[in-house]
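User: Continuing from earlier, I have the next pair ready.

Assistant: Great, send them over.

User: Here they are, in order.

Assistant: Folding the first of the pair now:
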Amino acid sequence: MHPQSQHGFQPVFCTIVPPHVLDKLSQSDNPDLAGPSRRTLEGDAARRTRRQMATVVTVPVAPASDEEASDKPERVLYDCRNGTQLPGTKVRAEGQEPTQDASVNRAYAGLGATFELLLKAYGRRSIDGNGLPLIGSVHYDEKYNNAFFDGEQMVFGDGDGEIFLDFTVAIDVIGHELTHGLTQYTANLSYYGQSGALNESMSDVFGSLVKQYTLGQSADQADWLIGAGLLAPSVQGVALRSMKVPGTAYDDDVLGKDPQPAKMEDYVHTSEDNGGVHINSGIPNRAFYLLATALGGNAWERAGQLWFDVLTGGQLAVDADFADFARLTVAAARSRFGEGDEAEAVLKAWSEVGVPTA
């Protein structure tokens, strides 16, 4: 189905920790590890089902004209106080002073950083292009091992403290989840198979770019890790995913080994995780990393601009596969930069991960 024939938005329930990771943890002999992850899995499954059953999706009304869309974010933070009622109790609104709660302040900063990248780098006002308020809820549930975007707002768990720490600590996780909103309002990529893996990869790309932009890091200085700082000290691993070397983020007795492939020849065919959306995203992730480092400088400028052009350009079908997306990035490079280094670097990056562009 071509994007022009999309009927409304189809918000999907997107979590930062993939089901396969929580599934592995839930099988641990240690109840302190298994319990929270099992409850997280069960809760996520219930929320996912509710999301799919919500056939009528209410999309926030955009301002009447571009003039009304502000260059300032409109953030609202809530505290669930370890309950599951969303959004919770309002604790900080736009422009208010920091609270005593570090989770609230980190979430507030992360929402603002994502807004700023979209505005300063790409001229987009919030994730919908019309200044949509950014809402976040912290301290969701007890020992909840995840963070998610539910189509309307961000939600952060505190983690179990054994495997996962507070989910507000990683700014790229906040950028990742909000990018699911950006995708929802633009290409609306189906959350299954290769289009779903592209959806996940888009979130990793822009999540990483939010972190790099905030830290003022060039492509060479960036760690290209997603969720660095989320894993507890006892875990053998550095992050949830590595865009630079997919499949190397963790290798732990309890957590298992990072299953991400880096090339098409290792593509994982599975019915789990919506057809492996969190697993096979390693392939387009690495293509972006290769492009960004080949071009050098700030990754959000040339490499990020091309990905943004394709995501928001209206040509990307909802059921696009990796090859469809790759071809559009080549076209975008030629359109924006001509037959120069950029187009050559895009072709080379996709070739290296085994995705055809011809």
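And the other member of the pair:
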Amino acid sequence: MHRLIIVEGLPCSGKSTTSKYIADSIGAKFYDEGSGNHPADYEFHSFIKNKELCSFLPEEQVLIKQNAVSKADGYIISLSLFSGELFDKLLQHKIYDFLPWETEKPLMLDKWTKFVHEAESDNQYVFNCVLLQNPMCETMMRFGFDIQMSSEYITSICNIIRPMNPFIVYLHSDNIRNAIEKAVSERGTDWLNSVIDYHCNGAYGKVEHLTGFDGYIEALEERQRRETEILRGLNVQYMIINNPNENWNKTYSRIIQELNTAT
């Protein structure tokens, strides 16, 4: 039995609805992107090293300690518990987007390890996009690492989750531009401007001199190419579905059939 199923793909590929469908169909625990309390991911958390705590006011230190998970070398804090000036200060220590890679990487791998150790043995779990998308956004888009470094990190995660016999569903798109253009009418121009800024002004975007909507699409095309290459090299079971939106009923049927026959 696959105790962990992860649905991957680019933005607007249908990951959320697909992963929810799978979870409902097999009676699994479902964790969506941005759920706020993900067992294997730090979506909206900060990390304060012990030596950094002194930069906060005494009363702020008390609040941090009261609401944090203590680690050997610091504190993990959910940003959702804070607001105002203290939130702004904590945001500068956000694990995603702000911490250096040498600090972020071991924190994330430790979170995956904790999940595997604490996962209920008689339950299945379905995740949306934490194995490829999140690591690629950090290693490729933010830091500008090459595909080998991204692959090594993702392989490390797969080695951790191997006891759960993971299965990866990848939703591949031949027309990324069209999918994003359709999504803009639903998500709005603020969302579009935000993702363009993220992809064009990170390390990868700057090296490739990406700008505007075309630059965003170019970044996504390369990310999809790298993700599928990495996926094919991982020692995990997977399926890649090309253009799943052409017939969602057929897509869902294929996935459930594959899950029922995969070992």
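Worth noting for the second one:
The first strand starts at residue 4 and ends at 9. The chain has eleven helices and eight strands.
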